[in-house]
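does this look right to u?? magnesium ion version
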Amino acid sequence: MASEEVPSTNIITLTRHVLSDQLRLGSAATGDLSLLLTAISFTSKFIATNVRKARLINLVGLAGETNVQGEEQKKLDVLSNDIMINSLRASGKTAVLVSEELEEAIIIDDLHKGKYCVVFDPLDGSSNIDAGVNIGTIFGIYKIRDGSAGTIKDVLRPGSEMVAAGYIMYGSSANLVLTTGEGVNGYTLDAALGEYILTHPNIQIPPRGKIYSFNEGNSMYFHPPVHNYLKSIKYPTRGAPYSARYIGSMVADVHRTLLYGGIFGYPDDKKSKTGKLRLLYEAFPMAFLTEQAGGIATTGAGRILDILPTTIHERCPVFLGSRDDVSDLLKFYKEVPTNSTA
Ligand code: AHM
Ligand code: MG
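got this back:
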């Protein structure tokens, strides 16, 4: 067998990678975060399996519908939510859970209480589920404040206080992308081993890209800075215009942006006054990852990670991606007041 065909015997799995980070941090690290991340990675394997066989076992469709046997069907995002809640509670490492699927935060009972809070969107990109397009899970993790028993106040904090964040994209393979505040790493699920393997170490967003990713169907509602910026990249005075790519699944659009560069945007506009994306479990985790990969994440008016949330489901405008591309957009915000309807 030629030497390049010999399989590696030193594979770096997610657990090994996170544990080695924790060991490096020495006595301050208790391994709790590693166990929590292991619980999240397990839920994602379970969700990935269900996403893959959704058609076969009637998981697509609306929750509340009944199948031919008269049994109630569980919509894929409701099922994913249940999987996450059960696993995170059972991990014994969480105190507060916030899910896009649940109106109220869950405060974990004393028996299972740990010191981390997880905010998550169990299955983002729901409009793409039935078409088999990439969807994903997004999560952010806070540590409870000193002396707190775990209340909603532990998650109503700026994104800059998160200790870890990431997403799992369910596509032709499952990809887990994670930051614990020291760069961004990407792992791919090896279905045979049932393990996430480090395949994209130290992801860095190219400083400039050639792709823009906005839902331009909303153009008639956009404010002038966004209009003017989009015009500048579609009708450049020098060089070629940018390419448009918009999947409509934030996880997939952000994943491409991290790897290829460019800009992803979901602005506030005349119709959606504060944008569409949710601050806690969509904007914050993606902003944390973007900054850790060397990019910029902004609302147009300021850094996303600096926002102090007042409610768990609030929304915010999002622009993120390559440093130079987002800086170009921000120049248009400086020229025209943010919410000018001119
Ligand atoms: P969801 O949480 O209901 O799935 O909505 C969030 C999704 C994001 O994944 C995506 O970026 C955005 O909504 C797409 O919205 P639109 O269809 O308005 O372009
Ligand atoms: Mg969502």
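The longest helix spans residues 32-52. idk if thats expected tbh
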